[in-house]
Sequence to fold (179 residues):
Amino acid sequence: MALDYRRLWTDDQLLPSILMLVTDERRRHDSLLNSGRTAFYEARLARGHVWGAFDHDTLIAFGLLSVSPPDPPPAWARALPDGPCGFFRGTLVHPAHRRRGIGTALLRQRIAHAEDAGLSRLIGTVNPRNIDSINLLIKHGFTVLDHLDAYADGKPRLVMGLTVGNTLHRPPSGAHRTA
Fold:
């Protein structure tokens, strides 16, 4: 199965597809998804901060990367470097398509974008129970920077970071497809 990966924008009119994935995930009894707010995803699409994975024309996964937002979460303050940085705001793969490397491909695309954009660090938060995501980030060079007892939603989070340019897993330049 060949998948297509690309950066998404408001003009792509994929907000309903993103919200459908989010709604389906939030219904799962074991979901760790933090945000289901429409405005959250609308704002990221408007800025081109969403990368998607498509099986034919169907969106099956997406990942968010905000670049130096003007108002990073206060809890991230200790991890912020001097200079521009990127903030991972989530990755969601449809359950039927998990464990196939799609999340890895989306992560690699966002790391490559950060390198191309000259960012100095990538930072994100992960639920400490989300072992698969933690292991994926560690595999790609992220380290745990902090542990938050209560994040904005009142749940604990690990703050993880990557110094950009220190990755061994960068995809070839211009890579947009994977088998």
Summary: Confidence is low (pLDDT under 50) at residues 168-179. The CA atoms of residues 79 and 133 lie 19 Å apart. Residues 102-116 form the longest helix (15 residues).
